[in-house]
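Final report, Chapter 2: Outcomes

The project's central promise was a pipeline that accepts a single protein chain and returns its three-dimensional structure in a standardized token representation, suitable for archiving and comparison. That pipeline is now operational. To close this chapter, we reproduce one record exactly as it appears in the project archive, with the input sequence first and the structure output second.
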Amino acid sequence: MTDTPVEQMTFEQAMKELEAVVGQLEHGDVALDQSIALYERGAALKKRCEDELKRAEEKVAAITLDATGQPTGTTSVDGQ
């Protein structure tokens, strides 16, 4: 685990650390108190990633929808 506060991490940093946390927990050679700390850090990292993805989705929606909420210059899946 890094000392970087989760709130200051980029999506990529949070994902990388989350993968490391999961790996440590899956390996199983971690004391209970360390497992709990890893779980809590992992939960915070997961939330950070979810929040960043939500912000990205909102940005995409903002640039692909007009003021009325209708798609702008996009094509639906069925080509219409």
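Archive annotation: The chain has a mean pLDDT of 87.
This record, like all others produced under the grant, will remain available to the consortium after the project formally closes.
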